[in-house]
Automatic annotation (TrEMBL):
PANTHER family linked to this entry: HISTIDINE KINASE CONTAINING CHEY-HOMOLOGOUS RECEIVER DOMAIN AND PAS DOMAIN-RELATED, TWO-COMPONENT HISTIDINE PROTEIN KINASE
4-aspartylphosphate modifications at: 938
Protein known as: histidine kinase
Gene that this sequence comes from: luxQ
Keywords of this entry: ATP-binding, Cell cycle, Kinase, Membrane, Nucleotide-binding, Phosphoprotein, Transferase, Transmembrane, Transmembrane helix, Two-component regulatory system
Organism for this UniProt entry: Endozoicomonas montiporae CL-33
Length: 1096
């Protein structure tokens, strides 16, 4: 019950009244404290004003006494010719506040000042003579009195008991002529003690001059620190501006109050001040706020205590009253709870004559009617359940027992299950139980159900024919309708057949070849077979009802999918196939296992069946296979490393051959027969380079390290280059070399140009190699989303047995040995085609030729993305630096003379100034003496290698501005990526390619070479270029040239042909036309027009 009637009474009556009372009392207490604070402040202000007036009255009295004495002395006939010692003694003795009285006069006879004074020493008075006894008073008072004959106050230099001696000086006149001065000494400390009562609150008083000097002070801080002014004390308190506020207000002639927080004391202090008019001085006092309000706070605490006591009284009274009201209702509720939860029918007595008593009588009548209804329902229930159980296919019977375990009712279905009639089964249930141990079990279960702790159990009972039957008993305790005794209501299920099936199932499990474990979704083992006992070393009774975790090592439990509570997971998570984990046996031996599991739906609920197989032997074999594989991979890596090192050693001398060939081919004056010889050298060198690359490609393929680098490329131009590279060899054998492409072939595609060129070169060169007469044709078509290639020849062909071996590395047919080669071309081509997303196939017939086919995915490119023409026509043009770059220096660093010389000559062709160094140390010295825009750095060098030299260059102030290019014979992508990570701006491989070198320089330095032809374009070259052009674009191009030639305006022709720079096939022709315009060669322009018209 979250909110009882009693709580409602308190919440809706007592709480609002209490809160209102607290609010009113709190407001009253606040206002009272505020009013009392103002009253205390006002009283203290008036007290200071009163004390100031009292002090003022004593000072006025002192002044009047001085006037009387002065008058008496001035009224004598002989003035000061006599010494009035007696008068001074009487005057001093008559006023206890006087510390001394004295006279100073000028003696006419001696011409000197004379003086006499009476001084108080404790209880005695002494008269002393002589001007010396007046001290500094003579210096302070005599000149001032001489200036104006008025009385004045003079401060002494001495302090006595916290106060200064103040002297009142009165001039002595007779007939308007000054005779001398009279002085009266008074200590303001005596005046404070006589006038001011400090017992109330113990305030601290100070008498201060208008200049802020202490005349008297009670302040312990000022006295301890020997302060002479109030400014020193206020500085210590941390309130230096307080005196200005007090002085401004006191000057108005009224008492003042100023409140201030003193940081040093961490308290608020009240400062009071009032003027002493006759002084003129000021009376200042201060007191701590909490001390001044001590009585107010004590009264506030008393008021708060009274409020708390009244609240407790209110709350206590409310609780007692609410308890008195709700007690009958609580008793009535308790009786109804007994009926509801304890199945008893209590007798509710009449509690009172009010509404609660009437409610109790109504509840009692309701209970009596419910008892009658429950009795009828119980009789009907027993009859209905008996009939219902009788229809449950003869496996269940319903029964009732009393507290002694005697059957008082049984359903008719008992006859079909145990063969007894219902009447025969009445009586003690234990007489049908077979064994004594089970009779004890029955008694224990009977006591349990009577104790409201029923459980399901099994019993062996006797059938009427003498057989034993297994019964599963379900029962529960219930009271009779009056709640006087218990009736046990039960249901028996004949599970004899199920027990037999279970035994058969266990026998089946024991015969399984693998260990089988059955558990609940909660991870509790329900059953294991004999193989599991032998595998884990446990007996069945030791594992049943134990956690499944017991069979799994500790470090594998967190990752095991079948461990933990699986009651809320889906069935799919129960299904494991070939899950590998580890098991642990009784002796702690850990071994690998293979687990297959499935869920089992049974009458008892969901179970998980697991087949566990020891895979120790299999793991041993796998380890041996893994070790063998690693050994093979190590051997393969060793082979790759050997091939890479050999490639490096071969590329270094080959670099000199190809490099110098390219240098000589740049010579415009070279003779034709020499050019032919150089091209033969270059062709042979490049062929050797391709063989080296084939070996390295095979190494990459076997290591699965093929990487594609797609670029935008001119497809028709690349096909023409492949044909031209093999054309000379084909012509020498009298073969026809054809390249055919469909009209819808896209001019620009995106693909790995190097690998595609390598595939086509391998296939075409094989065709030329194995064909002795006839033709070799390459067919290229677009087929949907793919690009189709076919290379056909009329060569010797391949037999059926050779078709199976033609793609194997280092495998050559008999004809291959005669033709030469490594036997790697087709193997590499097939792997490259596969890497590009296609498949290379072959069909052949001996004596009639072969056909190699493949297709790759087609991706159409943009013309604007095409790269420059160096790569395609590297021998056609010489690069030339812009005028602003001519003479810029480049440093070449290499330990091999031929490499340095060749690079230097290639760099001097465009117009660079080149310097050379043999190693990294010499390169650093050269950088100290000259400025270079670029450094070409070899990696492997004596003294100081290229990488260390680069690090030292980058450490220099301007070292990061210099472009440093790595020159290396390592061709692997990993090696080149490592060089970029070391800090090189780029790299170029050996053997050098002049076109690649010039392209790299353009990219790194951000320049663009001017191109001039190294030699006149041959007629065959023009025919080939013109044949590749689109008809409409060719006609437009010819029209531009014809109009410019007729008008003689070659300058405009150079601008107009630039419109064709982005069109495929026009790059080379544009450069040729520009060169003819620069040389004003109109004859060659007319020849070009005629050739284009003829071909058109």
């Amino acid at each position: 019950m979250l909110f009882s009637i009693r709580k409602k009474i308190i919440f809706f009556t007592v709480v609002p009244v209490t809160l209102l009372y607290n609010l009113i009392f709190g407001i009253h207490l606040y206002l009272s404290i505020h009013q009392a604070t103002d009253t205390v402040a006002k009283r203290l202000t008036e007290q200071v004003w009163h004390y100031a007036n009292e002090v003022d009255a004593y000072i006025v009295n002192l002044v009047q006494q001085a006037d009387i004495v002065a008058g008496m002395i001035g009224s004598t006939s002989d003035g000061l010719s006599w010494l009035p010692g007696d008068l001074l003694l009487r005057t001093l003795d008559s006023n206890a506040l006087l510390r001394g009285i004295g006279l100073i006069w000028f003696d006419q006879g001696s011409g000197q000042l004379e003086g006499i004074q009476a001084l108080r020493y404790g209880q005695s008075i002494k008269v002393v003579e002589g001007i010396d006894t007046f001290g500094s008073l003579l210096v302070k008072a005599w000149p001032r009195v001489d200036d104006d004959d008025h009385s004045l106050w003079v401060e002494s230099d001495s302090l006595q008991n916290g106060g200064k001696i103040i002297s009142y000086v009165q001039p002595l006149l007779k007939g308007g002529k000054r005779l001398g001065i009279l002085k009266l000494d008074v200590c303001l400390s005596d005046l404070r003690v006589r006038v001011i009562d400090t017992n109330v609150g113990q305030p601290k008083f100070s008498i201060i001059s208008q200049q802020g000097d202490y005349l008297h002070t009670d302040s312990k801080t000022a006295r301890r620190a020997h302060h002479h002014t109030i400014f020193e004390t206020l500085d210590v308190y941390g309130t230096p501006g307080l005196w200005d506020d007090l002085s401004r207000l006191i000057e108005k002639g009224k008492p003042v109050l100023r409140k201030s927080w003193i940081p040093m004391r961490e308290h608020e202090y009240w400062f009071f001040g009032a003027p002493i008019r006759s002084g003129p001085w000021w009376l200042i006092t201060h007191i701590r706020r909490d001390v001044a309000l001590g009585m107010v706070r004590e009264q506030a605490k008393v008021d708060a205590l009274i409020m708390l006591i009244s609240l407790l009284l209110i709350f206590t009274c409310a609780c007692l009253v609410s308890d008195r009201i709700t007690r009958p209702l609580t008793q009535l509720k308790q009786s109804m709870d007994d009926f509801t939860y304890r199945q008893s029918y209590p007798i509710i007595a009449k509690m009172s004559d009010d509404e609660v008593g009437s409610l109790a009588e109504s509840f009692q009548q309701l209970l009596e009617k419910l008892a009658e209804r429950d009795q009828a329902l119980h009789d009907m229930r027993a009859n209905n359940i008996g009939h219902l159980v009788q229809k449950l296919r003869g496996q269940y019977f319903y029964f009732n027992l009393d507290e002694q375990g005697r059957i008082i009712h049984v359903s008719p279905s008992i006859q079909s299950i145990l063969g007894y009639k219902p009447v025969e089964f009445l009586g003690p249930f234990s007489r049908f139980i077979v064994e004594d141990s089970q009779r004890e079990l029955f008694k224990e279960q009977l006591q349990g159900v009577l104790s409201d702790n029923p459980t399901t159990f099994e019993l062996e009972v006797l059938h009427s024919d003498g057989r034993h039957r297994r019964l599963e008993i379900f029962w529960s305790d219930m009271f009779d309708v009056k709640g006087s005794y218990s009736i046990i209501e039960g249901m028996a299920n004949d599970i004899t057949e199920r027990i037999n099936d279970t035994r058969k199932f266990k026998a089946l499990l024991d015969s399984a070849p693998d260990a089988t474990v059955i558990s609940t979704p909660e991870g509790i083992i329900s059953m294991i077979n004999g193989r599991a006992e032998r595998l884990f070393g446990f007996e069945q009774h030791e594992l049943v009802n134990m956690p499944l975790r017991l069979l799994t090592p500790l470090n594998c439990r967190s990752t095991h999918p079948l461990l933990g509570d699986l009651g809320s997971v889906s069935w799919e998570q129960f299904c494991l196939t070939g899950f590998e984990s580890y098991g642990i046996d009784r002796n702690g031996r850990v071994f690998p296992v293979d687990i297959t599991s499935n869920p089992l739906e049974t009458d008892d609920g969901l179970l998980i069946s697991m087949v566990v197989r020891d895979i120790t032997e299999r793991k041993r074999i796998e380890c041996e296979l893994t070790e063998a594989k690693e050994q093979a991979e190590r051997a393969n890596r060793a082979k790759g490393l050997f091939l890479s090192n050999m490639s490096h050693e071969l590329r270094t001398p080959l670099n000199g051959v190809l490099g110098y060939t390219q240098v000589l081919l740049q010579d415009r004056e070279i003779r034709a027969e020499h050019e032919k010889s150089l091209r033969t050298i270059e062709s042979s060198g490049r062929h050797l380079l391709s063989l080296i690359n084939d070996i390295l490609d095979l190494t990459k393929i076997e290591s699965s390290q093929i990487e594609l680098h797609p670029v935008t490329m001119d497809l028709r131009e690349m096909l023409s280059d492949v044909r031209n590279m093999l054309l000379e060899k084909a012509n020498s054998k009298g073969l026809v070399l054809k390249v055919e492409s469909s009209s819808d072939l896209p001019p620009v595609i995106v693909a790995d140009e190097i690998k595609l060129r390598q595939i086509l070169l391998n296939l075409m060169s094989n065709g030329v190699k194995y064909t002795h007469s006839g033709w070799i044709r390459m067919l290229v078509e677009q087929r949907g989303e793919t690009l189709y290639f076919a290379v056909e020849d009329t060569g010797i062909g391949i037999d059926k047995s050779g078709l199976q071996r033609v793609f194997e590395p280092f495998r050559q047919l008999k004809s291959g040995y005669m033709a030469g080669g490594t036997g790697l071309g087709l193997a590499i081509s097939r792997h490259l085609v596969t890497a590009m997303g296609g498949e290379l196939t072959v069909s052949s017939e001996v004596g009639r030729g072969s056909c190699f086919e493949f297709d790759i995915p087609l991706e159409v490119g943009n013309v604007e993305d095409l790269q420059g023409c160096y790569r395609v026509h590297r021998d056609s043009y010489c690069p030339e630096l812009p005028e602003s770059w001519k003479g810029q220096s480049i440093l070449v660093v290499d330990d091999i003379d031929s490499n340095r010389d060749m690079l230097a000559r290639l760099l001097e062709i465009p117009g660079f100034s080149v310097q050379q160094a043999c190693n990294g140390a010499e390169a650093l010295e050269a950088l100290d003496q000259h400025d270079f825009v670029m450094v070409l750095m070899d990696i492997r060098m004596p003294v100081l290698d290229g990488i260390e030299a680069l690090r030292r260059i980058r450490q220099r102030p301007h070292g990061r501005r210099i472009k440093v290019i790595a020159v290396t014979a390592s061709v692997s992508q990993e090696a080149r990526s490592g060089l970029l990570m070391e800090g090189f701006d780029g790299f170029i491989g050996k053997p050098f390619d002049a076109a690649e070198l010039y392209e790299l320089i353009e990219r790194q330095l951000g320049i663009e070479f001017k191109l001039t032809r190294s030699k006149q374009m041959l007629s065959a070259d023009l025919d080939e270029l013109i044949a590749r052009l689109d008809k409409e674009e060719r006609e437009c191009f010819v029209q531009y040239i014809r109009e410019a030639v007729e008008m003689g305006d070659l300058e405009s022709l150079q601008e107009r042909v630039k419109q064709f720079e982005g069109h495929p096939g026009f790059q080379e022709l544009n450069l040729y036309v520009v060169q003819l315009c620069e040389t004003m060669d109109l004859e060659q322009l007319e020849c070009l027009i005629n050739k284009m018209n003829v071909n058109g």
